[in-house]
């Protein structure tokens, strides 16, 4: 049977298991990516594992999220991360170098390789014909130590692209169209594989935009073929020797299919609250705008900044708009400046910020209350901007963002182009700049052995976790709705994230957007009963940060019962010894509220005996379902993977 790109990538790295959708498989991992918001825990986990030296082909530690140094905490973490990278043999990308995903794509990405990263947007490197998957930090630590990645074999979702994008539409509109059609759960347990004649009009960095936001669809990852366009991209970066052609074989059949005719697309925008609440820009045109932010891993390419610069060149953005530009990397800022775009942006009123994630993760650029903020970023969950849960963040393309910055209201770029006679098309961009030595190479093993880990007072150790009890009775401290994100569980932003390597301190922020009293209430009973949380559909969507599992676990969380779980958070719960159960009856969720009591008996036998668990809610018997493999069941019962390894039970 002919195979597509995703199937070929999996088959060439398969260590164990059968490639049947839903079955657990194990994959050899070639590369890893960590960033500073999640990498500090990964480095602490490498310490706990007693690692001597990385076992992957390439592992890179980036500092791109927590760049604001309002006090000493972020600087402490950066020093720790550099020392840990040197000690264990990782490459190190210092603050200001750039956002991890496009930087990795430019410097290390290679067709045919597998990569996992402790960041949910790791699939962006699928743009090069890689199998790049976002996972929890503990799984990255295990891969760095030479262990395979265990996941459930996804379905392969073939999306055929035909035609060409019309003027004033770009790659962002392609993925927004997918979100409009399928929502944030459409890609769950699927790999999205793009194919078709329409790929000819998408550059490698355009494909990065689409692959990056496959995470918002809930997909395991997104892959593109390694074709002539990928070869051109790598050649321009001085890495043509890393190119290997990887194409779908003729006659490939996919588990699920979809088709997009690119010529029929129009400018799209996601309304506040969800990346999936997508409408045509023309339907919301005229809505007042107070902030426009261009940049992030979801629109990282030189072209994305250049089109905005061309549109505002010789004009002034609206005086009521804060026009913020986050360059993606040092090389891209250099190239934008060589081309003249930086001057155009500054003259038009732009505020140029340092290269990094920044506003995307709520580390600065928080909009004013009630202000509509248009961003070229991947997520707009309530509160993620750092402005509180009532922020109003819209997601759009650079074309729509720049047009709206000029007019001070949401503006269809096609309408503005007609009014101002703007041109769209070839920007005649310069060849990419390669900065030698920008990313620090790991020292040789004998030097690495002498490296001392630099730990400031804000860096704690991993908390000790106990084994999972056979029976317990716990109160439900929180009952939440659908689409609870990891930002809701463990907030991002300038207040919380500086404590990312200090679990006791970070735990004080857990769920405070939903219930400010949750940490205090959980702390009171964590050593006596512990507690449970009840959720709806797609519990734990969004970021891969494992803090959203380990902080509630530190506060005594034993079990989460939900209608369904997002993939990465579900795995993170198991990694730290939290039982994830699903309701089996349609009305069961309504019977369990905040203040209910959950009780279970003979859990060890129940979990090892099948996928159903019988428990009681306020004395009434209920049947729940778990989706854990035998390996994961053992891990939960042992109290999580770190404790399992420490006890020699893995």
From TrEMBL:
Residues 516-584 form the Aconitase A/isopropylmalate dehydratase small subunit swivel domain. One of its GO terms (molecular function) is aconitate hydratase activity. It holds the Pfam family Aconitase. Its EC number is 4.2.1.3. This is Aconitate hydratase. Signal peptide: none annotated. SUPFAM superfamilies: Aconitase iron-sulfur domain (SSF53732), LeuD/IlvD-like (SSF52016). InterPro entries: Acnase/IPM_dHydase_lsu_aba_1/3, Acoase/IPM_deHydtase_lsu_aba, Aconitase/3IPM_dehydase_swvl, Aconitase/IPM_isomerase, Aconitase_4Fe-4S_dom, Aconitase_put, AconitaseA/IPMdHydase_ssu_swvl. The keyword Lyase applies. The lineage of its organism: Bacteria, Bacillati, Actinomycetota, Actinomycetes, Pseudonocardiales. PANTHER family: ACONITATE HYDRATASE B (PTHR43160), ACONITATE HYDRATASE, MITOCHONDRIAL (PTHR43160:SF3). Gene3D superfamilies: Aconitase, domain 3, Aconitase, domain 4. Keywords: Iron, Iron-sulfur, Lyase, Metal-binding. The keyword Transferase does not apply. It comes from the Bacteria.
């Amino acid at each position: 049977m002919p195979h597509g790109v995703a199937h070929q990538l999996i088959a060439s790295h398969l260590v164990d298991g059968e490639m049947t959708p839903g079955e657990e498989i194990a994959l050899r991992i070639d590369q890893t990516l960590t960033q500073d918001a999640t990498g500090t825990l990964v480095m602490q986990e490498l310490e706990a594992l007693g690692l001597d030296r990385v076992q992957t082909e390439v592992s890179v530690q980036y500092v791109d999220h927590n760049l604001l140094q309002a006090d000493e905490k972020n600087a402490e973490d950066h020093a720790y991360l550099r020392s840990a990278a040197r000690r264990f043999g990782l490459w190190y990308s210092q603050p200001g170098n750039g956002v991890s995903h496009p930087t990795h794509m430019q410097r290390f990405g290679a067709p045919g390789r597998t990569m996992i990263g402790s960041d949910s947007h790791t699939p962006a490197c699928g743009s090069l014909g890689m199998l790049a998957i976002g996972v929890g930090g503990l799984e990255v630590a295990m891969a760095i130590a030479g262990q395979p990645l265990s996941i459930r074999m996804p379905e392969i979702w073939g999306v055929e692209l035909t035609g060409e994008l019309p003027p004033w539409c770009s790659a962002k509109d392609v993925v927004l169209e997918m979100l409009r059609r399928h929502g944030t759960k459409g890609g769950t347990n699927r790999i999205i594989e793009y194919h078709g004649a329409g790929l000819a009009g998408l550059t490698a960095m355009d494909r990065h935009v689409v692959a990056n936001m496959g995470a918002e669809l809930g997909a395991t990852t997104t892959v593109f073929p390694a074709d002539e366009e990928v070869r051109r991209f790598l050649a321009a970066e001085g890495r043509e020797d890393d190119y290997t052609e990887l194409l779908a074989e003729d006659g490939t059949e996919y588990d699920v299919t979809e088709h997009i005719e690119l010529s029929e697309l129009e400018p799209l925008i996601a309304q506040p609250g969800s990346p999936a609440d997508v409408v045509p820009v023309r339907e919301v045109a005229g809505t007042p705008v107070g902030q426009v932010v261009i940049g992030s891993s979801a629109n990282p390419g030189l072209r994305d900044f250049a089109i905005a610069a061309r549109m505002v060149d010789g004009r002034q953005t609206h005086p009521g708009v804060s026009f913020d530009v986050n360059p993606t990397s040092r090389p891209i800022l250099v190239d934008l400046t060589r081309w003249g775009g930086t001057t155009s942006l500054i003259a038009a009123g732009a505020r140029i910020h340092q290269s990094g994630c920044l506003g995307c993760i709520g580390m600065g650029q928080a909009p004013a209350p009630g202000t509509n903020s248009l961003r070229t970023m991947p997520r707009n969950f309530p509160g993620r901007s750092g402005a509180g849960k009532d922020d109003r963040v819209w997601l759009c393309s650079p074309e729509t963002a720049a047009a709206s910055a000029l007019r001070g209201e949401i503006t269809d770029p096609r309408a503005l182009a007609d009014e101002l006679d703007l041109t769209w098309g070839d920007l005649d961009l310069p060849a990419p700049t390669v900065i030698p030595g920008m990313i620090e190479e790991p020292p040789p093993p004998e030097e690495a052995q002498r490296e001392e880990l630099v730990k400031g007072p804000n860096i704690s150790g991993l908390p000790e976790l106990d084994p999972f009890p056979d029976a317990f009775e716990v109160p439900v401290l929180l009952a939440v709705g659908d689409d609870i994100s990891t930002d809701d569980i463990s907030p991002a932003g300038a207040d919380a994230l500086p404590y990312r390597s200090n679990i006791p301190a970070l735990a004080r922020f857990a769920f405070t957007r939903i219930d400010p009293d949750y940490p205090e209430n959980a702390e009171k009973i964590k050593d006596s009963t512990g507690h449970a949380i009840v959720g709806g559909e797609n519990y734990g969507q969004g970021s891969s940060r494992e803090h959203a599992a380990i902080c509630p676990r530190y506060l005594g969380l034993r079990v989460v019962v939900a209608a369904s779980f997002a993939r990465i958070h579900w795995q993170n719960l198991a990694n730290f010894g939290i039982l994830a159960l699903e309701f089996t009856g349609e009305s069961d969720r309504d019977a369990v509220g905040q203040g209910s009591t959950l009780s279970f008996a003979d859990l060890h036998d129940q979990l090892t005996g099948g996928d159903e668990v019988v428990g009681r809610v306020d004395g009434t018997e209920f049947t729940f379902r778990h989706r854990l493999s035998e390996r994961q069941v053992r891990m939960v019962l042992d109290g999580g993977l770190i404790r399992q390894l420490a006890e020699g039970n893995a």
